[in-house]
Specification:
The protein has 230 residues and is of the alpha/beta class. The protein folds into two domains: 37 residues, no CATH class; 190 residues, Rossmann fold (3-Layer(aba) Sandwich), CATH 3.40.50. Helix 9 links the parallel strand 5 and strand 6. The longest helix is centred in the middle third of the chain and has 14 residues. The chain binds zinc ion.
């Protein structure tokens, strides 16, 4: 049915979500040039990378990585905007899958038994219609075959973790904002915690502290992107 795909492309041209160039048949969301130029962190090759340093206090945290660098004004921020604000959650599946395919050879997913996305509050999820982290998790799952659990945790406090706060206050502000809802499913597992943007690390920190309340849990972290200063 190539002719049908060709016709669809002709009638409904698709464009690169980063540079705006028209996509060719084999391309999805990103043109090949923007895919190659994506500012990857290669954190998976640096066990003590800047993101991991936030979690050093916990021996149960095995590894942490973020796939690419995020700048608010940078051209790749449009990927995050599409994923979070422009109702294109499928971008999450695409990027999650792409990242997992690239990271797999490094052994990043070895031993991981369950993928758990960082939950949104009920209110925020209702407003957006979806949790973007669920979609990133799904993409990773497609590439690795590791199952996901999208309702093992919930966010019970919808606090703003970012704006105008000193880092001490920010940490305090995130204590107890998540709750594990299915401890039996998580017990004894090596969990991959998935986030979209790791800016201060505080959301992940709060999530991990809840996960570690379950016996014999180990946690690794995958963030789709990270601010360069993290
Ligand atoms: Zn492009």
């Amino acid at each position: 049915m190539t002719w049908l795909t060709d016709l669809k492309d002709l009638l409904f041209p698709r464009y690169c979500k980063v540079c705006g160039r028209r996509l060719t048949k084999g391309e999805q969301h990103l043109c090949i040039g923007c895919q190659l130029d994506l500012p990857r962190t290669h954190y998976e090759q640096k066990p003590d990378n800047l993101l991991m340093q936030h979690f050093m206090e916990w021996p149960e945290v095995i590894r942490a990585t973020a796939y690419f660098y995020y700048h608010k004004e940078g051209k790749y921020s449009s990927l995050i905007h599409h994923l979070k604000y422009y109702d294109h959650p499928e971008v999450g599946i695409f990027l999650g899958r792409m990242a997992a395919k690239e990271l797999s050879p490094s052994g990043y997913f070895e031993g991981i038994e369950l993928i758990v996305p960082v939950p949104l509050s009920k209110k925020k999820k209702r407003k957006r219609g979806y949790n973007q982290c669920d979609y990133i998790a799904r993409g990773i799952s497609k590439a690795t075959g590791i199952p996901t659990c999208t309702d093992c945790m919930e966010r019970i406090i919808d606090t703003d973790t970012q704006t105008h706060k000193g880092s001490e206050e920010r940490w305090k502000n995130t204590k107890g904002i998540f709750r594990v809802t299915e401890p039996e499913t998580l017990k004894g597992k090596h969990i991959l915690l998935v986030d979209d943007v790791a800016t201060t690390g505080s959301t992940l920190h709060a999530c991990i502290s809840s996960l570690l309340s379950i016996p014999n849990v180990r946690v690794s972290v995958f963030a789709l992107s990270t601010a360069k200063s993290v």
